[in-house]
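Minutes, project check-in
Item: structure for the 379-residue chain
Input as provided by the requester:
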Amino acid sequence: MVIVDAAAVAALAGWLYLAFGHGAFWRTGPGLPDDAPDPPEWPEVAAVVPARDEAAILPETLPTLLAQEYPGAFRVLVVDDGSGDGTAETAARLGARVVSARERPEGWAGKVWAMAEGVRAAGEPGFYLFTDADIAYAPGTVRRLVRAAVEERRDLVSQMATLSVRTRWERVIVPAFVYFFAQLYPFRRVTRDGARTAAAAGGCMLVRRDVLEKAGGVAAIRGALIDDVAMGRLIKRAGGRCRLDLSRDVVSRRPYPRLADLWMMIARSAYHQLRYSPALLAGTVLGLLLLYAVPPAATLAGAAAADRTAPAAGALAWTLMTATYVPMLRFYGLSPLRALGLPLVALMYAAMTVDSARRHRAGRGGAWKGRTVRAPLRD
């Protein structure tokens, strides 16, 4: 039992740090302030919506953006990125300005090129609002974003959208997805000046134009498959001030009805996030096993062997794990009892991460809407 005891104690040490020393990653509030004062002058905002084969979902989302009552100049540009389903016609019919993306140059990720094409067509607004075609906005959201940016002197204000949890598999996978993202990039550390942690949520990123230009523009992240994290890092490295929150005002209407849909959403970019490194892949999988599999395993195995150390350390680690997951489940209106199953969900994420590496090595990594992002293989 010596090995089991050591693993259980190591897992407990990890959870003590995560629960009490990791930027309170498990907290879901407070969100954008409702009482921020109006700026003396409302800056111009240009919303840029990259869209590829999104004709079916735009009627649910685009009207919520077009209907924003913003006191300053506000424009919505839908960038048609080579769609074949009538996306451009749908967006124009709904009242947005449509920009047809030119042929994508070598070395550019598809979405990032569409973002750059939107910037090219937007002129010189005070802020760009980069958003996705599946995102719906509550009334007044753009006004609140700009208030926070101006009042707090933020150069990037990003809101992580509330994702769909209507189906069984969405209820299993989605809260854990947001939880793991917050664990990687604690929102309070992103917001804290001087902290190295940098990220954003691609569904809603309000970016100050002059700071983006100073940082090198969208071209500086041209090859990024995970454009939101890349944008957060770009702005912070340029000396910009960032804010990231979990939001109920920004909602994704994209459904993921099957496990295969959710699996692909995660597997398409997981290995990219690990910089295509086998060493980082191995470390990530081992870390997931230590933090999520060891606590329940040690609790049960130690109890069966009448050992004291393993079940005590394992049970406390499992308790901390469960307690930190409950706020996310409550945010999504789900039963806190689901938190007891987080170890099983974490094992699924480990499998998705390994599958992401397998797909990349097979030349099918990053596949999305008919495109595949290939990266150099590393031995």
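Outcome recorded: DSSP finds 13 helices and eight strands in the chain.
No further action items on this chain.
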